[in-house]
Write a structure and sequence with these properties.
By secondary structure, the chain is α/β, with parallel strands linked by helices. It is 37% helix and 25% strand. It has two domains: 126 residues, ATPase, nucleotide binding domain (Nucleotidyltransferase, domain 5, 2-Layer Sandwich); 174 residues, Hexokinase, domain 1. It is built from eleven helices and 15 strands. The strands form three sheets. A six-stranded mixed beta sheet has the order 1-4-3-2-5-9, sandwiched between helices. Strand 12 and strand 13 form a beta hairpin. It is globular and about 55 Å long.
Length: 314
């Protein structure tokens, strides 16, 4: 929920999510769930990122904590973005600004921490299944492909599955696309750019994901086939990952692209792709795994707040 700020004696935090395309910011009180003053900017402002933080802190001196989620793997308190020439370090931020704490998270680590905030009314299920353990898998195609394993709500293991290649050949074969220089890792297929590549392969034309979705609504045959193949690829990838991690609490999909495709998902076709070529005992396990689409927006910012509240035990 996003609300207008009111007086609150709790400590205040600035939450920032740096994605491959946009930067989202908001303020929040630690221990609450509400997000205040949400803003979205282009990643072009990363060229002057210090000034961005400085402006927030000068405007609101009550901000004492900073949590930044970034699209890239974390190593030694730093994250170098996967899709942008940008690097950020926790200690550098603490040394530059008058704040008490600074936390930097991989974006899907942050999204993993958001899972415990959502109830069933905020998740639309493709497969209801039955939750049988405390392991969940979160995944979402966007600028790239992100995924994380969540254990007992508070242990989040972000992955770089989008930058792996071992499953790519079979995924391409399943949807009838020959491997080419356009597809080198999994996120070259399952991402916003991959969505565009499938359409280009079928139609010999370039369209944005938003344009492809609109064309599908207007019954364009190439757009319809693009969405069908893209959804099939997601189902096949989830099947592989489900047998790898056995996330019997559930698989949860997040992000604007997957929400925009939800109206086109045929539940039976998705389930057939998810279970295809599985031995009966494995099909039985997979069919019981809940699969849902999170309806909440700004999941990274919600996750940043949940992480900080848990760390400070508020």
């Amino acid at each position: 929920m996003v609300v207008n700020p009111t007086k609150n004696n709790k400590q205040k935090a600035l939450l920032i999510d740096i994605g491959g395309t946009n930067i989202r910011t908001c303020k929040a009180y630690i221990g609450d769930k509400e997000l205040y003053d949400p803003l979205k900017k282009s990643t072009s402002c990363l060229k002057d990122f210090d000034s961005l933080i400085k402006a927030f802190l000068e405007e609101d001196s009550d901000i004492r904590h900073l949590v930044i989620s970034v699209a890239g793997p974390k190593l030694n308190d730093s994250i170098t973005m996967t899709n942008r020439n940008f690097k950020i370090n926790e200690n550098d931020i603490l040394n530059k600004f008058d704040i008490d704490t600074c936390e930097i998270l991989n974006d899907w680590e942050s999204i993993g921490h958001s899972l415990r905030l959502f109830n069933d009314e905020e998740i639309n299920y493709i497969n209801r299944g039955s939750s049988l353990n405390n392991v969940a898998l979160m995944l979402g195609p966007g600028t790239g492909l992100g995924a994380a394993v969540v254990i007992n709500n508070n242990i989040v293991l972000p992955t770089e599955v989008g930058n792996t290649s071992t499953m790519l050949s079979s995924l391409l074969r399943d949807i009838g696309i020959d491997a080419s220089d356009s597809f080198n890792v999994v996120e070259d297929l399952i991402s916003g750019k991959g969505f565009e590549r499938i359409y280009s392969h079928l139609a010999s034309d370039k369209k944005t994901p938003e344009e492809i979705v609109e064309l599908c609504r207007n019954k364009d045959k190439h757009a319809e086939e693009t969405i069908e193949l893209f959804i099939e690829s997601i189902a096949r990838l989830l099947s592989e990952l489900a047998l790898t991690y056995l996330p019997r609490r559930g698989i949860f999909l997040a992000g604007g692209l997957i929400r925009s495709l939800e109206e086109f998902i045929d539940l039976q076709s998705f389930k057939n792709s998810f279970l295809r070529n599985r031995r009966p005992m494995h099909a039985d396990v997979l069919s019981e795994i809940p699969i849902g689409i999170i309806q909440k927006k700004m999941t990274c910012l919600h996750g940043n707040l949940a992480f900080l509240s848990d760390k400070l035990k508020i």
